[in-house]
User: What shape does this take?
Amino acid sequence: MEDIVSLCKRRGFVFQASEIYGGLAGFYDYGPLGVELLNNIKQEWWQAMVHEHENIFGVDGAIIQNPKLWEASGHIAGFTDPLVDCKNCGARHRADHLAGTDSTDLLELKKLLTDKACPSCGKKALMEPRKYNMMMKTWIGPVEDDSSIAYLRPETAGSIFTNYENVRETMRAKLPFGIAQIGKAFRNEISPRDFIFRVRELEQMEMQYFINPKDEKESYERWREFAWTFVTERMGINEENIQWHEHGPEERAHYAAAAHDIYFKFPQGFKELMGTHDRTDFDLGNHQRVSGKDLQYYEEETKQKFIPYVIESSMGLGRIFLAVLINAYCEDEQKGEKRIFLKLPEHLASVKYAVSPLLKNKPELVDKAREVYKMLKEKYGAVMWDDNGNIGKRYRRQDEIGTPNCVVIDFETLENNTVTIRDRDTTEQKRVSIDELTNR
Amino acid sequence: MEDIVSLCKRRGFVFQASEIYGGLAGFYDYGPLGVELLNNIKQEWWQAMVHEHENIFGVDGAIIQNPKLWEASGHIAGFTDPLVDCKNCGARHRADHLAGTDSTDLLELKKLLTDKACPSCGKKALMEPRKYNMMMKTWIGPVEDDSSIAYLRPETAGSIFTNYENVRETMRAKLPFGIAQIGKAFRNEISPRDFIFRVRELEQMEMQYFINPKDEKESYERWREFAWTFVTERMGINEENIQWHEHGPEERAHYAAAAHDIYFKFPQGFKELMGTHDRTDFDLGNHQRVSGKDLQYYEEETKQKFIPYVIESSMGLGRIFLAVLINAYCEDEQKGEKRIFLKLPEHLASVKYAVSPLLKNKPELVDKAREVYKMLKEKYGAVMWDDNGNIGKRYRRQDEIGTPNCVVIDFETLENNTVTIRDRDTTEQKRVSIDELTNR
Assistant: This one.
């Protein structure tokens, strides 16, 4: 992980948020190369979900919604972590971490913590553990009182459910159909950790698929398949780095009847990357109850009315970003020297081409290289000019950020309009004509 | 405006957030067609700013930053609206609106409000006006106290300034260079209004250009030019719908030495669409002071050190989205009937092609149409299948959402592999071969 964190900072993928002010735990900014990779991942997902499915529609909901939404979703009551306060020094700790358990049962935690000392002051002065809501709170409007409290959404799914009826109607959609969303969510984690793996401000890509309950099993299996295919084929993750993890009954979220995650081999172990969850009619049922709006679906063929079930396909962008980088991170030896390179799929790479003149003090080479650079930049956008240091150093720099193609303009270019193009993974160079470059 | 609001809701561009819970003032969700238009606008801006400029780099910063950032930026002290409370009923009002003035001077407002009654209870019981901070507040971590307060960013610019040094270093950038960002910002407006024009949760596209102070005037003019060109050529806004507005000294934000906005003819009058601001060394100077980090730039050629100046190019996504829709909104008469159509530039349109079989009960037409639909969808993504109602109704439906091309598969298609393609603006139809469709 240290290698990745250091590479991310050194090469402009990820910075600590507000770094010049000492940062803020659990918050990160994506730098110039990071935002390109992030955008490429988002676009690939949007393409796979929305543009390749006739019956999946996008939305972009507000981060702040009417708080009744979170009452209906169960987040106000249930989105909690167990905490314990120290009577002596006032420090607050995660009760389950301190007790060394995965359980969040308050009675069990109380027992396990009986003899524990406070890690901050060392005194045996821990109070009774209690539930602590992880939603971030704010106020809307000029008065800060209970009636104006609002929450930053803890997951994007909420505004998908509240828009179910609007989308169905405006798109004249029939079951099954899905709604997809990419956007930020906030969780007041007590102990954010593992770089961008567990953060307080995260971005999610979620799709909720609305179905006739009779199609529950079939649809669930189909979206499990999609998850595996997306991660391996579209994100280029090697199969040996991922595995299925089925949630046990005690592990599932309050809304899920079944849940299969894809776990990725992060440096801290196999951890959740992408989830497929069967949310049944939990969400629409609760929204119907709390809002008083009829959210039943009328099926013409059978003349039946029912609350649709929901199969959810969900992933955190930070996690897939991190997994893509870790999966691509390679070291080898080239001419006796250690080389770091990112074996990123070309469609995800932050920079597609780097263009260099062989020598930066030969104006005719520089002019020609600028011409090729402009041509490629016009076509691909994410193209970098690099004339710093010798060619070997430039290659190393581009390898480290995963640029698949390095183009060099040399004296032969001036003669026959061909350039060398070097492959990042094999380091092999071949000559191609300039025309070929933009017609690949 | 009512026509636009109604179209947005009816056709799935924009919905009230949490509509089933009665909404939440100042918050909106983008629906299936809205999110496509929004994404197209963002991509066009990113292309124009980042991918077409060698020296402009993207970032994606966190919405929540270390609060010291907002101390340095002046937002904790200065990002305020004047409010006045009623002693009798406890209602709170915008003092300047109530006084019918643009001034935010508290003494002046006090004078103007002397004889006014509270609009809520009718009593003359208004207290002294006072400043009210518009940043939304939350807490980070388990304890809700002063030391854990954080703010939702009121503008995206903040994390551009704090990343200035990181970007300069990792990109080995030399002045002039820019940093661009698209992201959400939050403003606790007392009276959100005019649909998505003035909201509490907004999205911004901002670029800060760091320059040698000696290039101030030239760079400022250049980015004014960019603004005009972007709005007219890339967003397709007609020149008669926009005008320059130069900020007077009393109107400028606390950080700006000069400011030129492009105003768009919104239904409520000419209002701000996009700003070009000269922020001088206000931001980096303050961040250097508050953070204690050296943010000076060392210029090799002159061996001089200085704080770069900043020219900012900034726009709200909701506003340009609204302007693009209003600008495109047309009504005409076709065969004696009123027609609504959106004259959107093709690269911005939410749907590029609609595909229909002439008759939906002829399997051979439907099969062929499905084939064409799949082909186009694979290539363009944003392609809609439409077999509902007669052809005339389908055309009207597509016109209303701005689909530039309607393709119809008829009996002649089965004979010679040609289809009719209809132009949204002229309503003219011509026959083209299917091959031509995907090679346009």
About this structure: Chain A has three domains: 2-79+137-325, 82-133, 351-437. Chain A touches chain B through 83 residues (CB under 8 Å). The radius of gyration of chain A is 26 Å. Residues 2-79+137-325 of chain A form a domain with the BirA Bifunctional Protein; domain 2 fold (CATH 3.30.930.10).
